[in-house]
Amino acid sequence: MNRKKGFGLAILALVLFPALAAGSGNRDPNKPLGLIPWPAQLILGSGSFALDQNAALSISPPASRELASTAEIFVSLLKGRSGLELKIAGPAPAKKTIFLEQKADPELAGFGPEAYRLEIDPAQIKISAPDPRGVFNGAMTLLQILEESDGSREAPSLRIVDYPRFPHRGLLLDPARHFLSVDLVKRVLDLMAQLKLNVLHFHLVDDQGWRMESKVYPKLQEIGGKDGYYTQDQLKDLAAYGQARNITLEPEIEIPGHSSALLAAYPELSCSGQQVEVSKIWGIQRNALCPGKEEVYLFLDRLIRETAEIFPSYYIHTGSDEVSPADWQGFPKNQELEKTLAEKNNLGLQCYFINRVNKTFLDLNRRMIVWDEMADCLPEGAMAQAWRSTNPISPVTAAGHPVVVSPVDPWYLDYPDWPWQLKRVYLFEPAPEGLSADQLKLLRGGQGNLWGERAPEQKIMPKLFPRLLAISEVLWSPESARDWGKFKARLKTVGKNFEK
After folding, report:
1. Number of domains in the chain
2. Cα–Cα distance between 462 and 476 in angstroms, integer?
3. CB 44 within 8 Å of CB 18
4. Fewer Cβ atoms within 10 Å of its own Cβ: the N or the C terminal residue of the chain?
C-alpha cells in the first residue's frame, strides 16, 4: 500500500467515524474515542471486549524477548490504572486473550518498522506487526483505548492500521542546567512511549554542568557535576529502559561552545588556557574549545568514543550553536589555520572544528547532529536541527542532509504555556511548502525542547503537558487528520492520564 492510498483511507475513516460509533456496543456516539496521537486508519465495529481476571496475554513467537518485554510493560501499566494484573499465557491461552504477534504483513510493509495492526472484537484482541517496535506501538494504543472505560477494563470493537508520519518524534530534556533524577527521567520515558515519541534528546553538558561520568577524564564530573551527575551504569540503564519502550536516547555533548563546565576541569583546552568556573548564570558564555590546538582533537576523540560505548544511538548531538569565543582571533595557531580556510574568522574556524571532529564519528560508524548555525558547513553524514526557524530545512535537504525541526516558536516547552499556546503548538506544520519528494524524505521529523534554565525537576511535568500531546500528534498522525476541535475533545479524556 502506498502512502497516498493510506491517507485516503484515513480520511474515509474520519468521515465514517460518527456513523460507525453508533454501532459500537455501549459507546456514547457523541463521545470521541480517546486516542492521541490519532491513528492513520480506524474503523469502529459493534460490541466490545471486556477484561476480567481470566483474561491473559499471549506472545508469538513465544521466545521473542522484545515481545516478552512489551507484554511485561503493558501488564505493569494496565495494573497501575485498573488494578487488574493480566497473566502472560503459555501455549494454551485463556478464552479472552490479547495476542501480541510479530509476523509478516504485506499491507504494512511500506510503512516502516513502527507500523502495526490492532483488531478488537468481543472474543479477543490481536496486535500484529512485522517488527517488534510496531507491536509495542499497538500495545500503547490499546492501553489508551482501555483507559477511557471505567476501570480501564473495556475496549470497543474496532480495526486500526497505523504508522507514523515521521521517523524522528522527540523530546529534549536538559539536566545540564538543573539536574534531573533517574526516576524522573524514567517517568518521562514511560509517558513518551504512550504517545509514540521515540527519541529522547538528552542534553547532558553545558556551561552550568557536566552530567555524564567519564572514566577517561574524571575531572569532568568531579568539577562539573558537583551538584549531580549520572554514572555510566545509570546512563546505560536509562538507554536500555528507553530501548525497551521504543525510545532512543541521543546524548548531546556541547562543543566547541557551551563548554564552561568542561573547561573548568581542563582549562588547557581553551586557546588562552585561563582558568574558568562552572557558570552560575544563564545565557551565552564566551568560553570555547580551541580549534587550533591539536590536543583538543585527541581529547575529544577519546571522549566521543567513551560516549559511544555508553549510548548505542546512531546519532550523537554535538551542539555547535551560540559559539562566541573571546580568545580565538588572537591565538597564533588559529591565525595560521585560518589562512588555509575558505571561510574566515570564527565561523570558518568553527566549521573546520566540527568537520575535524566528525572524523571520529565516521570512524565509529556514528553520525553527528548539530544545531542550524552549522547548516552551511555540515560535515559528511551529519544531520541538522533547525531551531531558530524552518528556513534551513530547504537548503539542508537540497544538499542531501537530513534535518529535524524543533522551532523556538512554538515548540520550546520551557516557555510559559499561555492559554493560546497549545493551539499554536498543534497547528505548527513541520514541512514547509516547496520541498521536493526527495527533500521530504530527508525531513526526518521534529521534537519539543524543554530547556532546563526555567525547569527544575518539580516543573517538568506541568511544562511538558498538555503541549507534548499536541506535538506527538503532529509528528505521528497523517497531516490530513489534524483537526484542532477534535483534538481538544479527545484531550479531555486522554490528558487526564498525563496530569497525574
Report:
1. 2
2. 22
3. no
4. C
- In 3D space, the residue among 143, 132, 155, 126 whose CA is nearest the CA of residue 190 turns out to be 143
- Domain-ending residue, one of 162, 180, 200: 162
Q: Supply the Cα-derived Rg of the chain in whole angstroms.
A: 24
Show the domain range for 147.
Answer: 3-162
Peptide bond into 395 cis (omega under 30): no
**Cell numbers 486473550 label which residue?**
97
Instruction: Answer with the one of 140, 162, 184 that is the final residue of a domain.
Output: 162
Regions of the chain short of the pLDDT cut 50: 1-25
Q: Is the bond preceding 106 in cis, omega lying within 30 degrees of 0?
A: no
Let me know whether 109 and 190 are in one domain: no
Q: How far apart are CA 226 and CA 265, in angstroms?
A: 12
Any domain includes 248: yes
N-term to C-term CA, the chain: 40
Q: What number of other Cβ atoms are within 10 A of residue 243's Cβ?
A: 16
Amino acid at 55: A
Cis peptide before 332 (omega within 30 of 0): no
209-241 pLDDT, tens digit per residue, is 999 999 999 999 999 999 999 999 999 999 999
Helix axes 484-494, 132-147, angle to 10 degrees: 80
Residues 45 and 194 in one domain: no
